[in-house]
Design a protein that fits this description.
Its EC number is 3.4.16.-. By secondary structure, this protein is α/β, with parallel strands linked by helices. The protein is built from 5 helices and 11 strands, in the order H-E-E-E-E-H-E-E-E-E-H-H-E-H-E-E.
Length: 246
């Protein structure tokens, strides 16, 4: 074998090697998020009616490993017949501060289920927002609902800014678990003290997306009840492509 042939063979081997390694990395990442989705998949809730035509997921995303802060979510997708892959993603936040988005927003306001009078079974909510969008309910900040922190002081030192940063971290990590929602039109909605949370989080997203041509978090706007809005953020609203009052 000539030197030229040896170099070509060696280069070809390295190319094949890197292609194989690259494919394994991609395959591992693909398999990783699919396993995480499968782990979070809700097959059936206790007392759930039979005629449920949409997919549900719930689980935890760690937002601060050192402190052990993790936020709990519940995703209720749009019905299969309405092509959920074409629907936007809406993050719902309740306020309080201290009100669970699962206990209130999902269970008593815009979620797909209502608890029947027997306290054991569920019925479908005909006015659920997931008929028009994929709904992501988030218990935020840590210490609210099912969200937690392993650092006790977190409960007493939480503030709007850290809540916004944790929510942003949650969203970016959640999109790694659900990459099918990357670049999807994204909105934030809520009421009560979420009138503070939502503008803070919106501002973080807008600033992080500056200069990014095709952001994975494709933020389009937010919706919040008028009497809930934190007024100092009125001037910031002009930075958001769309804004709607409920």
């Amino acid at each position: 074998m000539t030197t030229h042939q040896y170099i070509n063979s060696s280069s070809s081997f390295r190319l094949v090697y890197f292609l194989v390694i690259g494919s394994l990395v991609v395959w591992s990442a693909e398999g990783g998020h699919r396993k995480e989705q499968a782990r979070d998949r809700i097959v059936k809730l206790p007392g759930q009616p039979r005629n449920v035509k949409f997919s549900q997921y719930s689980g935890y995303i760690t937002v601060e490993a050192k402190a052990g802060r993790a936020l709990f979510y519940w995703l209720t997708e749009a019905p299969a017949k309405s092509r959920p892959e074409k629907k936007p993603l809406v993050l719902w936040l309740n306020g309080g501060p201290g009100c669970s988005s699962i206990a209130y927003g999902a269970s008593e306001e815009v979620g797909p289920f209502r608890v029947r009078e027997d306290g054991k079974s569920l019925r479908l909510n005909p006015y659920a927002w997931n008929q028009e969008a994929n709904l992501l309910f988030l218990d935020s900040p840590a210490g609210v609902g099912f969200s937690y922190s392993n650092t006790s002081s977190d409960i007493y030192t939480a503030g709007d800014k850290r809540t916004a940063e944790d929510a942003y971290t949650f969203l970016m990590k959640w999109l790694e678990r659900f990459p099918n929602y990357k670049h999807r039109p994204f909105y934030i909605a809520g009421e009560s003290y979420a009138g503070h949370y939502i503008p803070e989080l919106s501002q973080v997203i807008v600033h992080r997306n500056e200069g990014v041509k095709n952001p994975v978090l494709n933020f389009k706007g937010f919706l919040v009840s008028p009497n809930s809005l934190n007024m100092p953020y009125i001037s910031f609203i002009t930075l958001i492509p769309s804004f709607t009052f409920l």
